[in-house]
Batch of 3 targets.
Target 1
Amino acid sequence: MKGSGANPTAAMLVIGDEILSGRTRDSNAHYLAGRLAQAGIDLCEVRMIGDDAGAIGAAVRALAGRYSHVFTSGGIGPTHDDITADAIGAAFGARVAVREDARALLAARYERMGVEFNEARQRMARIPEGAALIDNPVSTAPGFSLGNVHVMAGVPEVFRAMLDGLLPRLAGGAAALSESLRVELPEGDIAGPLAALAARHAGVSIGSYPFFEGGTYGANIVVRGSDAQAVAAALADLHETFGALP
Amino acid sequence: MKGSGANPTAAMLVIGDEILSGRTRDSNAHYLAGRLAQAGIDLCEVRMIGDDAGAIGAAVRALAGRYSHVFTSGGIGPTHDDITADAIGAAFGARVAVREDARALLAARYERMGVEFNEARQRMARIPEGAALIDNPVSTAPGFSLGNVHVMAGVPEVFRAMLDGLLPRLAGGAAALSESLRVELPEGDIAGPLAALAARHAGVSIGSYPFFEGGTYGANIVVRGSDAQAVAAALADLHETFGALP
């Protein structure tokens, strides 16, 4: 999706070998996409890469230079394969060290739980210098924002909780509106009239998403835009064009 | 995931505004990841971008130069927003025109169905010069391979059928083996012994994927590699290290 021109833009970077090996199916990108659409931030690109410091650094630098915001998920736990904080610190020349406020949060949690605050757990307080912490109400270990890069956990419950804290701090634009019409005709019959309709409504974006369900070919036609009147006008035209068809 | 060094490498490019808007959750990347792991092709990167010719061209050029194979999904249907063939042709300087063998396949299908083979449907026979067709046993309209870029449909049933035809033509390497152990301990307790274990088994990759389920913290520890003996030795060590823990 191209940015609308008016709204802030964003990319997501999903980090983890388990995604690329097919072991785990990522759910954070789809969740983020929905939340950003509501917030008026245009998600323009998603990348998924492995637990490789060079690949993380190169991707995050490229995306941070191109978009208003970069959201990452994965690789901020206590184990040896959690290398995101170090890779992102290195990418931006920020020293990474145990930070006292993060350490104190974690120490208090493990004391409450009666669990040893060992060296591995202290790793989760290692934050690049100059970053702002992102609250983790689920399991305490914080994420962080370094410039326009927002680093969050991969575990979906934690990712979602961190995003809830982060999003209200980011300036959004006009929420994306979308309306759709299900048309039970093969896309090949829809295509001609739809192209003409799209030309009549240049202020919105119109997509056609084909399906094949139980022997029926059809497509969901989706109108997207941030101007409610323009979206409504295109939807009315859609109903007029396709609503009366068999 | 870094390439193993021995196996061919791959990237996937998922094309479609509907993914980035949060309307549709992509399933093709996860499916491809599993199939490539079996085939011994290392998936190193996934990108998801919108229906934007410039973005498609830039991404496919970057990925085709870096990996042995690039797999794309989406944007090859008959409607105005299906621009993948043209964008990829333009990216590699290949003329895109209706190709006779593809046109004949489609014409025969629509004649059998008693459906008009109109201008929109003829668009699906537009293929970049020099490409090899990828068979579509579900709905006929072919994909294509242009050099190391394999262009397939976004509809999951069609993507999977095309991949079935394509994969046997690509040279694979050693299938990725993986074994895992579920450890019901917080990752903070696992991390120290696991880092030592990973150092003892440098020939395999060891990942820790935390979960929090019904009040229980734990992690699935996954050993991956292409050498069966090395994977088995690391798994045995994992059982010895964590199997006896509460």
Target 2
Amino acid sequence: MMGLAGIPLGLEFTFLDPSPDACAGAVGSLIQADFSDTDAFRRLAGSVDVATFDFENVPESSARAVQEIKPVYPSPQALGACQDRLHEKNLLSSLEIAVPAYHPVSSRTDLLEGLDKFAYPVVLKTRRLGYDGKGQAIIRDQEDLERAWQKLGDHDLIVEEYVPFEQECSLIGVRGIDGETRFWLLTRNLHVDGILTLSLAGGFDDALQAAAEDIMRRLLDHFSYVGVLTLEFFVLEGQLLVNEIAPRVHNSGHWTIDGAQTSQFENHLRAITGMPLGGTSALCEALMFNWIGELPERDRLLAIPGVHWHDYGKAARPGRKIGHATLTAGTLFELAANARLVAAVAGGKFPVLLNSIF
Amino acid sequence: MMGLAGIPLGLEFTFLDPSPDACAGAVGSLIQADFSDTDAFRRLAGSVDVATFDFENVPESSARAVQEIKPVYPSPQALGACQDRLHEKNLLSSLEIAVPAYHPVSSRTDLLEGLDKFAYPVVLKTRRLGYDGKGQAIIRDQEDLERAWQKLGDHDLIVEEYVPFEQECSLIGVRGIDGETRFWLLTRNLHVDGILTLSLAGGFDDALQAAAEDIMRRLLDHFSYVGVLTLEFFVLEGQLLVNEIAPRVHNSGHWTIDGAQTSQFENHLRAITGMPLGGTSALCEALMFNWIGELPERDRLLAIPGVHWHDYGKAARPGRKIGHATLTAGTLFELAANARLVAAVAGGKFPVLLNSIF
């Protein structure tokens, strides 16, 4: 999606990916290498003017290897800060940004201490390499605790209070090399088994949008950040708690391709190449459906008004995100009506999930 | 642009182009061959499920060579019918579609006969291989006549009455394999030296839109057409005269990428692959600026709200279309104001041309 957004801007791409079949190969040249292969990253650096990443588990050391040769945006420092949940939360706290209460866990004793502080339920998470709900467990009782400790006890961990959130949402913003910032609409996110499944653009009041932008601005300025940044929030009693920072374009911003004046991908590229940023306002109502594990029947979906199809060209595999569709509409009524048609075709969790938002 | 539209649909592309540097190579594999190389077209046919063209001077024989192996949409017959201005006008007349009065010219005597019929000024055109104003001459007097005859007299020609049109516009429509049709807004076109320079989406009354759609429907049905078709019209005293048929996506429809629910490229691909068609309604006001011969200063333009940049990755050459920008806006006032900013940066003919529309 980054490549597709960049070609009209006159950009050319070299991608680095561990898979020889990486879908990005359709829109640029491909260096097949592990993310830890610093030599390959140096080769990448030699073939480009500027480098970026769309996956936050690229090792900071790999990003630094590139940075010795060519600019890397966002900075390896920002990347590194978001790779460890404990550091991330310490940073947020130091910037006076609200987060769920947390406690570092290096031993079973630490975990019991955390439980003393927060009481059941709590969430135990690995500090590093978690995504899509991987590397975490909700602990509701002693039995859960034993199971979670067996599964995760070998890692550096963090235990957090469980937030009985009313909603989850994310803010995607972008900061240019010149420090200019732009933000898209807060987007409501619905997860199933820890994996993002639906994202609805907007619908939050102006005060919450402003509060989210204020929080993100503190982070952008802290890092002298360049590129797209994503914050995932819990909404609890009308307040925002930051759940996670993603130093990259984000799945919950895919609706911006079809529903916003400028997509997150285009603005990320504009930012890191020093171009002026594009407008981020929404053109219409937009709801994104993630296709996880398999694609639903494309042609039945394309027959529904306002469906925009995004097939990533990836092999189907359980739990893997292999595409999405964004439904756009002029009004929320139309969006809701057509969303029910989409959900009926896509099946699975979608019909029930939709009932929780419309 | 076709490839960029097709990748999210899950399509893969093989392109055939005479140039080894063809920009399409960035989004698919490339067979470098002349458009007359039927062997190469057979190879192309072997590597795809369905074939199309975005240039109407591909020889009909090449399209037929593909058709012996794989489906070609639009049909080689429709392609052929649009390659000869005389056949095209005869067809339109037989379908009772208004065209400028015309007269076939195989000799100087024929030309003088035509002049007797229409009186000065007239337009002399080659029957084949004309585009962007090439292969035609306006004849206003005896001196023009001699010059035009020297330049074009070796070709099969057609002479037409000169139409003192009030405006030029085009309609782009699409017909699916199942016969479903969709149409975008009539688009006003401004040419400089015969080359399209500005296209403004919409602004025509409902009756003219309906009249244009009715004309196109007759042609679509006549050909059992599949894919995108373009009609260029003169508007004279509120009536439409067909100037040209283009059996393909069209420069005057490039605004649909940024300004319509579904672009001409995506709907062309949906049509020829048998997918349902997407909505064609406009999302906003849209004005396209063609970059001819050279690109203006990209970053100064991207700083103007609503500018969408399209660099084709082609080498700059006088008279060559190497990119465009589409300006979008929520209102016509905003569009006009920002269009003046674009014109000021782009310079050339743009400021004066804009004054003729806003």
Target 3
Amino acid sequence: MQEILIGIVGAGTVGGGVIKILNKRIENLRQEQGLPIRIARIADKDPRRQAQFAAYGAICTLDADSILNDPAIQIVVELVGGTTFAKEFVLAALSRKKHVITANKALLAEHGPLIFETAAKENVSVYFEAAVGGGMPIIKTLREGLVANDILSIKTIINGTCNYILTKMSREGLSFAAALDEAQKRGYAETDPTLDVSGGDSGHKVAILASLAGAGYVPFKSISIEGITEIGKNDIAFASELGYTIKLLGIIKKSNDEYLDVRVHPVMLPARHILASVSDVYNAVLLEGDAVGQILLYGKGAGELPTASAVVSDIIDVAHNISCRIGVRIPMRYYSSSHELSIKPIALIEGRYYLRFTVQDKPGVLASIAGLLGEEGISLASVMQKEGFSAKKVPVIILTHVAIEKNLRSALMRIEAMNYIKDHTQVIRIEE
Amino acid sequence: MQEILIGIVGAGTVGGGVIKILNKRIENLRQEQGLPIRIARIADKDPRRQAQFAAYGAICTLDADSILNDPAIQIVVELVGGTTFAKEFVLAALSRKKHVITANKALLAEHGPLIFETAAKENVSVYFEAAVGGGMPIIKTLREGLVANDILSIKTIINGTCNYILTKMSREGLSFAAALDEAQKRGYAETDPTLDVSGGDSGHKVAILASLAGAGYVPFKSISIEGITEIGKNDIAFASELGYTIKLLGIIKKSNDEYLDVRVHPVMLPARHILASVSDVYNAVLLEGDAVGQILLYGKGAGELPTASAVVSDIIDVAHNISCRIGVRIPMRYYSSSHELSIKPIALIEGRYYLRFTVQDKPGVLASIAGLLGEEGISLASVMQKEGFSAKKVPVIILTHVAIEKNLRSALMRIEAMNYIKDHTQVIRIEE
């Protein structure tokens, strides 16, 4: 059988892992799976990496176009990241009828329809297991393993950096800044951590998951995203005292109305919730299907080899397709602009809330807050006010019963105009 | 495109679920996935079920052979169970070049090589996601999602009945018999629960997982299997006091010697272990891959719709293959008698042990036990003796340091010959 040639663009951490794993398994793939795979070309803009990978028998080059221009290369692996060069490169590879494997969540979340429509037109595949959840096979599980199900909801801890920071804050009482510093020292956070801690990275992954679960296109821009930068160590402590753990969660829920509910924000989870025990850099995806009930996947969502494991499983999947002369095995017709889904406006969501007001300690304050909440139809489930703070800035913690977000926002706007409010009010949604 | 016709033999609980799910998704499969699937025939020996499924447009029959004899049927779904009729039926279907989907763990564990070799010869596929872990896509995860990995170990809670019983015993202090009774009342245990509580069902599933993880054939008969019938409520209580939870675990471990370590038995897990929190009828599979690290799958391992979800995902997988004119997409060359793996004799395993001796309370007993263990090179990590028992039958609990099983067995044989031993000694392996 003819060799199946692969071109890799981007030989950084994940790319290096892919090369290592393929090299280790290449004989096994030939013999056990009947797949004569070979890495033909590795392109990277850093010339030092050429020497590093020269031993693997591939042509190492600075010239990514040489991968596009090699007609014998049938599979292109894009591990550059970003949405500029990567977008042009992926589209060019597809237009030359090469299959594409990518770990690029930003690219798919922001330009998925263009990429999947181009692939369909050219009758080639785009595989992207590594874009979400590192080595956890969540994409395959959604597209194949649970294909018999209507996915009713997904709740996911999908950013290891944020989960590490929140775990550190929770276990060691650190501030956000101190926990971020620790994450950076250990290599769990980038020098510029904005994309992670702002929730943007989670948002990219959730946009992809929501499109698969909703069987329609969920534009990244339509998702309400909040990060963890405003979570204070006192919020973590109060949550713990109330029996909750604070996690950054991606939430996807089907409802009876016309909207798909898709969002990323910190939540308070009951401490006994299965996702509350997912700590450090681990990720987890809790799915609910109409047939299968609840399924959890748990594993490392990032790192050289876990992510490379996902890329290599995609390479093998595509190689099986090629050896069976298949262009597209599982169509992605719904991932297109013409199938765009309506996302529930955040104002319409319903739930319980944790509110931390910072008030001047004087008579009538609690009555005023409770009254203003009540006027918007929001009732209180519990109230906590602690001694030991300066009378000028006292935290008052309120957990509400179920309320509609827009009513809560109206009430908060009125409360924050009061002269007894001394700081920004913290709002964290409670997920049961 | 030509319709893809399915024949189902066995329309009991799971079969009924498959028919319901397919009926619900059939339009979606045609439109979104381009798969014109139709159930052509349903065979069941119970004539009352014919009326039940007549509405679905399939021919309902008592005659399973009519499925084999219909040349238009390309996919046969075997949901009869057992290893007699099912074996003949599956082999006959394969020899007529029909793809087979089965949930039959006993059939594959006991006759896997014959079935997979026949399928390979006829160039058709056998899919069996529902045989292990109900709706959890563990087979697909092993064969495809983690294909880039060498699977180093699997630890799994894979029988819902046993896990329910152990959970009940642990939470409510019930005896095994009382917890089994409760499980039967709730429909979680069969009238004859032997296959479940003896560990046989777990053994069948573990044989399949071990063959996939080990990339070779693990005969069911070669696996050491113990059930939960001898677990006493005092063992559960002592375990809890020592910080452990008792679970029935399937264990698969690669080691540096010539053997694959494969076994099913009760273990004591540290209470903080991720598998210790898997309770009730839930199943979980904790895998370790050389690239991906630890991955956990968690979900309902049984029940009408979860199991049917797995069967339907297989139907769709095979239908994709058929629509692409593929006989066998992913070869299973290693699942054959010529690839049989050597399984580690239980005498050679190493680990820590919980020992519960029942002794007469008189001077020198503990010294004698400790001395005899010491003579076999087994040292004690902790000892617990309680007040409040009759002096004629006092429990003495010992946790050992790491020991080799054969040495432990030698010591126990010598200890049990002593006249101060008043009952059978309980041995439970500790898994860290």
